[in-house]
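Incident log, support desk, overnight shift.

02:14 A customer reports that sequence design results differ from what the structure should imply. Their input is reproduced verbatim below. On-call engineer (initials T.W.) acknowledged and began investigating.
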């Protein structure tokens, strides 16, 4: 079974001016000439491959369905909110995602629609997945910088460099890490976001940020501070601390090519 994800970027003009379709879908399509609301919708499909094409589905079909069935709904609703000077709570945005699922579901009957995610900005996204029961998910990115050295005293110097390469540099080396925390927020409640951000910082980010992980973080006194172990530490430190939210998974990016995701 394959899982295919496609991101559709678009802009909404809540001021009611004329939009134009745009030619650069990499940036946003449709788009606006001036100030507009930029959003991105991730569509996740799950299916066996079509034997003749090698596709789950041609991604151009996803683009067309979202632009025809979903974006006009977003445009109408956001324009109405703007007209009423109404700042929608998160639950209202989840309702938009549910409406998007209602509209897209019949289009992708043969390749199941199992998840939709709405990017509010590059660092926050809302999602709903329907793989079993419906689950609402909020994800936010945090950054931290740290240095580490990968080394095991059980091995000699030659073996350590063979295993860990440049990461075994005796002086250590640094990374600008990105932490993604995904939670199931409390239904119908507001005001939890500030506490969520504070707890992530208190119980993980402040512990590792601008630290020598081998020396300053007790969790790594006996194990290597790899990206795998960092993700596990983030899970351990946060799993009981984010109430009323339920922790779903954590992801630590070591660079833009390497990450480790941890969950139970």
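02:41 Re-run completed on a clean worker. Output:
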């Amino acid at each position: 079974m394959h899982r295919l994800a496609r991101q559709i970027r678009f802009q909404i003009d809540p001021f009611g001016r004329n939009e134009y379709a745009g030619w650069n879908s990499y940036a946003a399509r449709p788009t606006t000439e001036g100030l507009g609301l930029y959003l991105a919708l991730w569509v996740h499909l799950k299916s066996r491959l079509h034997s003749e094409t090698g596709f789950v589905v041609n991604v151009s079909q996803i683009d067309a369905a979202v632009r025809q069935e979903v974006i006009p709904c977003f445009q109408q609703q956001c324009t109405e909110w703007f007209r009423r000077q109404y700042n929608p709570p998160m639950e209202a945005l989840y309702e938009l995602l549910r409406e998007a699922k209602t509209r897209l579901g019949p289009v992708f009957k043969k390749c199941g629609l199992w998840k939709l995610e709405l990017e509010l900005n590059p660092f926050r996204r809302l999602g709903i997945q329907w793989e079993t029961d419906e689950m609402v998910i909020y994800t936010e990115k945090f950054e931290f910088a740290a240095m580490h050295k990968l080394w095991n005293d059980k091995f000699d110097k030659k073996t350590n460099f063979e295993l860990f390469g440049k990461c075994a540099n005796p002086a250590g080396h640094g990374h600008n890490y990105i932490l993604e925390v995904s939670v199931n927020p409390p239904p119908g409640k507001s005001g939890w976001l500030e506490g969520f951000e504070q707890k992530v910082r208190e119980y993980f980010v402040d512990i590792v940020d601008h630290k020598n992980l081998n020396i300053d973080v007790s969790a790594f006194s006996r194990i290597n501070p790899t990206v795998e172990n960092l993700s596990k530490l983030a899970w351990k430190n946060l799993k009981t601390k984010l109430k009323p939210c339920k922790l779903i998974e954590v992801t630590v990016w070591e660079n833009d090519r390497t990450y480790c995701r941890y969950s139970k």
